[in-house]
Amino acid sequence: MGALTRPLWEWQELLQALALDEPSAGGEVTGISIDSRTLSSGDLFIALAGDPVDQHGTGRDGHAFVGSAEQAGASALLVARKVDAGIPALVVKDTLDALWSLGAAGRTRMSGRIVAITGSAGKTTARHWLQTVLQAEAITHGSVGSYNNHWGVPLSLARMPRNAAFGVFEIGMNHAGEIQPLAELVAPHLAIVLNVLPAHIGNLGSLDAIRKEKLSIRAGLKSGGTLICPLELGVAGSFTFAVNRQADIWAEPVGSHQATVHIDGRRHDLHLALGGEHRLQTALAVLAAVHCLGADVEAAVRLIPSLDAPAGRGNRYTIAGRTVIDDSYNANPASMSYALDALRNESGRGILLVGEMLELGSESTRRHQAVAKQARNIPLVYSFGDQFSGLDEVFGPGFRAHYQAAPDFDIDDFVAATRPGDVILVKGSNRVFWVHDFVSRLCAAMARTQA
After folding, report:
1. CATH class of the domain at 315-449
2. Whole-angstrom distance between the N-terminal and C-terminal Cα of the chain?
3. Fold of the domain spanning 11-93
4. pLDDT tens per residue, the chain (451 residues)?
5. CB neighbours (10 Å) of residue 341?
6. Is 142 buried (19+), middle (13-18) or exposed (0-12) by CB count in 10 A?
7. Cα 284 from Cα 115, distance rounded (Å)
8. Half-sphere exposure of residue 104: CA atoms within 13 angstroms, side-chain side
9. How far apart are alpha carbons 98 and 101 in whole angstroms?
10. What backbone torsions phi and psi does residue 368 show, to the nearest 5 degrees?
């Protein structure tokens, strides 16, 4: 809502944010980019070491793409050494440190209300829903995609318009100690912990350690800020949500897509486009945030039924009479269980394409066996990845084949064996299906059957 009356960053602001004393000439910056492939004209290009899509970096050097950024229309560069370019350049000692400085400056100059979201599953959906709901009221800025790590969070802050009324930021982690510094950078008025599940348990060692890491988001709360979390976490002083009347906001489910929500002594009839208890929990967390921000809860309840999930988080596509459920962006034991329960409740023949779950450490064998047992009543099952190898009998009579990797799977042959009315769930950790653009290729193959 509303157009920017000033550029995202003026040159003098950049110099001040980066503590650069030497005067240099430069113009206005309309955006911030760390990837020359997606850069827009007018962006400041920041040359980082590593691949922007890789959380831990791959050794690639963004300085090698300065020429590409200039050709794409970058208005200026942020670099760690002098480069040969025809556009202004800001030279700093470390470009990642500089990105954090820009993120901090972007946060400081924004006087609106900030929300930070973490959790083992559902962060991006919750951020997307809350951002959409708040955008209907006032200018709202948020993370893009799953930009929730040590690059994505400061980048999202640096991109925040100075006149935003709300900011919604996603904070993720793979290892202990990652959430607190990001939360302190975001400095939220509200911090949401969606859930604590055994994702990344291989890196953290236990569910208690994961809980501690997620709750470290409290360290960033502004004075007088509020923590929103599930009632079951038992965190004193928090604003709680649950399917339990003891919570501050609670729901009575009415089928898989509807619920009566109770908050502040009022009842609201809520409808969800996407079913399942985990979606209801996400909606409760969003409504809790709307309430705590003093925004319009009634308007949010009316808007939520129109909200879908971001790509790869349970989206449904119906092609040639078949339905594909794309839950291929990621997986952990809890989200896998939710997805399998939902598949069993579908009216058509259920077909499961299940990929392994990563970062489970010593829990991995037991967790994959549990998934295989839960899938025993699904009519057709195909498994992918090392951790599901050898579980044919555990999957039961519906098991058809195992593949080490998605590219080994013949999509055209598979589609030829399906029939109208089938419901196909694609679920696994990111590198199993998502990085291979598997669902898009599956949908294209289905579309060819009706051409």
Report:
1. alpha beta
2. 41
3. 3.40.1390
4. 444 468 999 999 999 999 998 778 888 999 999 999 999 999 999 999 865 444 444 467 899 999 999 999 999 999 999 999 999 999 999 999 999 999 999 999 999 999 999 999 889 999 999 999 999 999 999 988 778 999 999 999 999 999 999 999 999 998 899 999 999 999 999 999 999 988 777 778 888 999 999 999 999 999 999 999 999 999 999 999 999 999 999 999 998 789 999 999 999 999 998 777 888 999 999 999 999 999 999 999 999 999 988 889 888 999 999 999 999 999 989 889 989 998 998 989 999 999 999 989 889 999 999 999 999 999 999 999 999 999 999 999 999 999 999 999 999 999 999 999 999 999 999 999 999 999 999 999 999 987 6
5. 15
6. buried
7. 15
8. 15
9. 5
10. -70, -35
Q: Which single residue is written with the structure tokens 């009356």?
A: 5
Whether residue 73 contacts residue 125, with contact meaning beta carbons closer than 8 Å, is answered with no
Pairing of strands 315-319, 322-327: antiparallel
List of residues 6+ apart from 76 with CB closer than 8 A: 11, 14, 26, 27, 29, 44, 45, 87, 88, 89, 90
Domain ranges of the chain: 11-93, 110-306, 315-449
Same fold, 11-93 and 110-306: no
Helices (H), 187-296: 201-204, 207-215, 277-293
E strands, 92-242, in order: 113-118, 140-142, 166-170, 190-193, 226-230, 239-242
CATH class of the domain defined by 110-306: alpha beta
Whose structure tokens read 């609670």?
250
DSSP assignment string, 248-272: SEEEEE-SSSEEEEEETTEEEEEE-
